[in-house]
Amino acid sequence: MRLLGPWFVALAMLALAEDWGPELDEVQSKLDSALQWGTYRPNLYFGTRPRVPHSLLSGLMWFGLDDQQNWRSIRHSCELSDNLDEYGYIRHNGRDFGEQVMLDAEHGVEIRSEFIKVPGEHGGSWAVRFTGRTLENNLQGVSLAYYFGLEGNGNMSMEADSAMVTIDGSTPDLGEFKARIIPGADNQGPLLPRELEKIKDIPNIGKVQAIALEAPRSSIWQAKDIFQKMLFKQAQAKAKDILQRTNGKGPLTGGVLFGINGEKSSSDHDNNLIFGQMIVHGEFSFDVIYECSDKSATIDSNDIGTIARSRREEFDNRFETIFALQEKGFNDDEVEMAQKALSSLIGGMGYFYGSSLVSADPKPEYSEDENTAEPELSEPYSLFAIAPSRPFFPRGFLWDEGFHLLLLGQWDPDLSMDVIRSWYGTMDSRGWIAREQILGDEARSKVPKEFQVQYPNFANPPTLLFAIKALAERLETSDSTNMLDQLAQVYCPHGQCDSKTEKTLTPKHIEKLSHYLSKQLQFFTNTQAGLAGRGYRWRGRTMEHTLTSGLDDYPRARPPSTSELHVDLFSWVTFMFAVDVELAAQTGDGERALSSERQLDKHMKQLDELHWNTEKDMYCDVTTRKRDDFDELEDNEADSEESVFVCHKGYVSLLPMVLGLIDPGSAKLGYILDMIEDPDELWSDYGIRSLSKSDPYYGKGENYWRGPIWLNFNYLVLSSLHKNYISVDSPHQAQAKRIYNKLRSNLISNVLAQCKETRFFWEQYNPEDGHGQGTHPFTGWTTLIVLIMAERY
Hints:
Blueprint: H1 6-16, H2 22-34, E1 37-38, E2 47-50, E3 56-64, E4 86-92, E5 97-104, E6 109-118, E7 125-134, E8 142-150, E9 155-161, E10 164-171, E11 175-183, E12 209-213, H3 223-245, H4 254-257, E13 265-266, E14 273-280, E15 283-292, H5 301-323, H6 332-347, E16 349-354, E17 357-358, E18 376-377, E19 381-386, E20 396-397, H7 398-411, H8 413-424, E21 436-437, H9 440-444, H10 464-476, H11 507-527, H12 567-586, H13 590-611, E22 612-613, E23 618-619, E24 621-626, E25 641-646, H14 651-658, H15 667-677, H16 711-725, H17 733-758, E26 764-765, E27 772-773, H18 785-790
Antiparallel strand pairs: 1-2, 2-3, 3-8, 4-5, 5-6, 6-7, 7-15, 8-14, 9-10, 9-13, 10-11, 11-15, 12-14, 16-19, 17-18, 20-21, 22-23, 24-25, 26-27
């Protein structure tokens, strides 16, 4: 069946992002202004941009000068191959303050950034102070560069001397602005060899050199490549010149070769990319200040440190107020790691804009040979989302985002709501949201071609419901009698958000979110139904993978077929009906609440009827197999196959329990708790394994979801035990408490120990010895360790 083409999909997305009403639009307008500027380029070690397309980008670059090949590995975008010893935010409030540490032993430098914002027109003004030092093994120093680049319409002019680079510019969305790059007065460069001291035209090492260039506006994100080519060309010319002047003796030091030939000024309106470079050795600092045209939003270098100290103190106080970790007995080191987890999650927030590669047709399955149209680029659209991993997954993932928002929602409900709203703004008219948001050339450059296309029949676990449910519960328990009176609190000056912030969430928000849930639920039931409308099946299966389930290589039926029924998907749909009942009731939609409640009752019965295996006492997938006793001559072909269970103990079989779909008094819960607690099955001293140790697929193949410990699922287990089973008098209460306490202790101990040893949070953890593995830093759902420590579920 041919579905809507990509351009129709884009129009449907825009149509669905309808008006939320005057009160909510006013709130959104204030929030948009407060959050317009930020560290919204999480794929860079440090970068800023506004939440508007085709605008002003900025970013940091550096490289050490001891090795003359280091220019080939300029640090700019976060890359696993860079092997940085540490990087990530140690404090970030998501609004107007962020503090980050970057340690690069290979290039011999440690850098700290402190980002601040002040409110004003067009998103206000911001500044970042970089401080650092070259390491003992660094003799020649380090090249530091900061750039501003215009992707869209506008202009920039530059004035520069050794003390400052000043940029004046204007764009349609930002209005007039001024930016400055100011090196620290005490910065020192590496010593020049005596042979070069008398040679003219050697750059003023330790101060700032600047250059303005014209670059294709669609290539500003490739600033490093542009800088690299210019640097190498100039270095070649300098090397030739120095060798001529010294009769071939040199020496050719990195500080001399790789200092750019700066310009004093540039008023060329075609120049849209400006670099300021400093070559330093020892301790150093420099400020980057961006100011909007609002005179009340000016920033002076002398004020940056004072503002940063104040906001650092505010962050620490607010963190303890919300999570109470010191009150719970955690020591200073453990609290700092928890702060780092939250801050790095927030530091992964990004504004993404561009076209997505979308297929107009569903992806054919198995033996189907249906011709499909070539995928096309959609109309450009935007997304405000959190990247799970800045080096490896610097884009939005639907499956991950719901877990991210559980933590963000505790810290800043308004910010969480803004991310939810952005995701639902990408929904098409059928309720489909692309599970992976690869928007624009920059994002596609990080993704293999075979994974770029998004298919309109592919679903993903609806984890946004976790955040929506949490926000709805927060609203329902609020004691505010007039929440609309609190709309002015949508922006919290200097990050000082108090309980009033929660009251910006109104019943209108929940009503709108309830509408989106209804559309999404309709998409699931229409597109993921099993054969003859019986059960549900993830589309997108291959022999080895079910990427759409989120559990990639978790073992399923072999070979895959259209007759499969997946217990995890059935559980997700049942959970969606349960949440729909709650939201419909909360918004006064009694008819829909009654309808969803009937569906919920039906699904709860079918869950056991379809997926509970009484022989193995567990929930299982289902498929069909040719009957062993089938006689081709005697039996009817329609009776050739029989339904069989596909059982693999692990996260899939746990999902009915972690989503709270099992009655506390049910014997089924006892069997599941036994499975969890058995060290020969799922239990380890470091967390619950994704697949049973007794399973033949355990640790085999890619070994992605075939044994390793994942924090998101361990959090769900703890959350369900805490909310659904520990406080309820039942035959399983004592066992649930025992598992909860021991599992929580194991997870906290191991994640913090690994962070202390490696300085990173990891994608997953080894079930045999607990060491971190997979990509790092992984500051997506692994940061749920903060909620586990705080026991906020």
